[in-house]
Amino acid sequence: MNTLKENNEIKLSENAKKVLEKRYLKRDIKGNVTETPKELFERVAFTIADADKTFGVDESEIQKTKKQFFDMIADAYFMPNSPTLMNAGRELGQLSACFVLPVEDSLEGIFETVKNTALIHKSGGGTGFSFSRLRPKNDVVHSTMGVSSGPVSFMEVFNAATEAVKQGGTRRGANMGILRIDHPDILEFINCKSDLTKLNNFNISVAITDKFMDALERDDDYELIHPNTKAVVQKLKAREIFNLIVKGAWSSGEPGVIFIDKMNKDNPTPLVGDIESTNPCGEVPLLPYEACNLGSINLGKMVETNSNGNPSINWDKLAEISRLAIHFLDNVIVANNYPLPKIAQMVQDNRKIGLGVMGWADMLMKMGVSYNSEEGCKLGRQVMEFIDYHSKVESIELSKKRGKFNNFAGSVYDRGNYLSEKYKGKSAGLITDEMWAELDTEIANYGIRNATTTCIAPTGTISMIAGASGGVEPLFGLVFKRNIMDNTEMYEVNPNFKNYAIEKGIYSDELMGEISKTGSVAHIDGIDEKTKEIFVTAHDISPKSHVMMQAAFQLHTDNAVSKTVNFEEDATMEDVAEAYILAYKNDLKGITVYRNNSRYSQPMLIEGKKDDKKTEAAVETKPEQKEHKELKIEKTEIDEHGVEIKTVVCPECGNSIKMAEGCFICLNCGYSGCS
To answer: What pTM did the predictor assign?
Structure first.
């Protein structure tokens, strides 16, 4: 297999080096980089391996583990989440990507959470909140006989606090705000981001219940419930509220939707509490004061050429990396310096980790399988089933040596047959019902170390470092045009596509230039249909296929799957509504949609012509974008109304800024509003 290590050095792309230099490598007090990528990977691998000392592992075994962890990261088989890469072995030592905090219905409780949020953002983490416990707007506050200002007004307080706290100069705080569909203030919440200048440090999602979906299917009313008294305060037409959610998502990508009852159905520790919120990108349902420790396997590295010259998946390597990654992530919990004692305790008690994937599009392209196909979905089910199984095998082995998670009693694993019942008759072809039953027996005897083991996160910059496609997303484009010195244009071509095109004898600068106009080969003359099937991009794929691929991975993922369902610009609100219904019926835990050009790729500056006077309208930018003073103009166009529209490119590498993986991101260099 290919390796990133060459002559004892780390072989990285220029974009990967740039990302590491800007965000991850150590610097001195003057801001000069003082660390190489190799030294960074050693720092991370050695720090996490040293956690084995806590369990009495001898030094020779720890040295072996250090090498295994280093090779796994340096060879780009696996990458931990960004805070672990940034902070392992450094003074800050905060290694978790995200946290959930409770928002209690009292002024003291709210501002205690604001304070804790600031501490988390300072340490480099993101935060998720449910505002569903707060009394509705204009409700009487008995202690003062005043009236409540409601959840949305307090979200603005959290937003302002986030704006004031930069995360150590490397990341700005990101928040998830959630409100239940049956909260009396749900209408205000749905519309709270219609003004694009407000709440720009929040993603928002509506927590939709099974009762609401039942009412929607019957075209009936549903009840709004006071969060404190539990009294029914109003009834609304489910269809009308659903349409408002759909309209918001169609217009701007928000609000997103989480299916809160489906999340709680898979809550591994129901006796500890109910799931109320998720992390900012929506893929990790967490209890209050829990944190997520995530990492991703690079699936593109798992494809090799067999003896017949055909591509095949190295299942042995995938099993090895899956188990080693679980060992790594469990050690992260030990090595982590948590920002709050309550968080440290909750994490220790449940030990949730999330092993996910990146490079899924790379694997499909190398295997010659279309993302937009049932064959692709079947392979996705097989891959994730295999990873999930081996993650549980390793977690059980760790439990034998280190003990099960503290809240095991009363958890779903305490039933004795949880895995075999959950996956009965759902085999994707590699792991049998009998194999799950054997694991149940092992768990009954020895417990399991981690309450959750799998999660599909957006991989943003870590996939850039690994040279992989992001998460389980398709590629956004096959070819990017890039301007270099002297106004010379270069084409950055996806390496899988470039190798394929050269092998087929169709590669040329002229063809790459034509493809770079849209990033897709779907409408290029002279490209055969098989090539078009293999090398589909996000907008070549139907929304239904996006949803079904997410469902393929969700089946064997403990937490949730972060994925964007992309729509063409001319998609209708009915198209979005159909995707939501399809997601619910296929047991997704949440869904994020984005209609092309509806929000984040909107112009930075609109110059309208009216009575020969120019007017300017500011359009919302994501927080990190605001920090760059010189934004490059990609193109200037005149629309049908005579309005001059200027759009921007990535301020770091000059390529187009797109919406992908639920984030505002440059697909070329990793510049992002939520990385």
So the answer is: 0.89
